[in-house]
Amino acid sequence: MKQLVLKVALDVLKGAPLRLLHTPTGVLCNRNRKLSYFEDSPQYQQLLSFLSSLSLDSQQLETVIASAISKYFAFSMLSHRWDSGELVLRDIEGRSIYNLGGSMEGLAKLQQFCIISFRRNLQWAWSDTCCIDKESSAEVQEAIGSMFSWSRRSSLTIVKLGNVFDGGSFADSVWFTRAWTLQELLAPHTILFYTHDWSLYMNHDTTNHKTDPALLEELQKVTGIAKQHLIDFSPGMGDARLKLHWASCRRTTRPEDFAYSLFGIFQVHFPVIYGEGGENALGRLLAEVISRSGDVSILDW
């Protein structure tokens, strides 16, 4: 039974980010360490005890196990505009973020993100600042190609609106001007917006801002994206011109990232080549979309 649980756990973890922060301890964990935490957890012992009482075939057992393991490894994702002093993987590897000192804004943001996730009963959390080894081109390629699916699989996306203060509005936030945050808005099923001081936006006390009619109305106005797409977005080639239009006013620091940030939205994958230039990257993206959709009208996006 333990071997079956391990097999299913490995399958579940294959679809999750390679590294996650363990919110109770603040430690960054790779897949092996995540498995160790699981095997030492009360949930693991409870699962083994529960399984021993069942009379099911192997397929039914795998379904039960996968459900329990997916619940244990449920994770949150941080969506934000990068500030100066963000912590990267090398800064926290082998250390707890709760034990790190200093006044860097990036550290306080990472700590608060994990604390909020923990308080919302999520033991795992992902941030693009420190959960990717940016020195590994293969890992960067995998992360860029997987971020949409990770966001969709996440139990919660926490958005930090760093420049929105009490009484401010979505219209004040630079978060809505960035290309990467488009997929981080559309992909997740559950999202919460937090202001500069980590208060829920407009004090809307809810578990999901995508179910709040007033916030959806405001989101539609500031993004130009209809409510049905905000609530239940479908990636792929459908409405290709419309999707490009949503992205058209957004910006990236690196020019190639405008195209790369749309991989998940269109469900396309091709090599990430930093240095090729924004026009070449966008040209490759448009060629792929036209080839698969047959819609040349997207050139008028």
UniProtKB/TrEMBL annotation:
PANTHER family, alphabetized: HET DOMAIN-CONTAINING PROTEIN (PTHR10622)
**Protein's name according to its UniProt entry:** Heterokaryon incompatibility domain-containing protein
Q: Please give the InterPro entries that the UniProt record associates with this protein.
A: HET
UniProt organism field: Pisolithus microcarpus 441
Which residue ranges does the record assign to the Heterokaryon incompatibility domain?
76-163
Q: Name one Pfam family in it.
A: HET
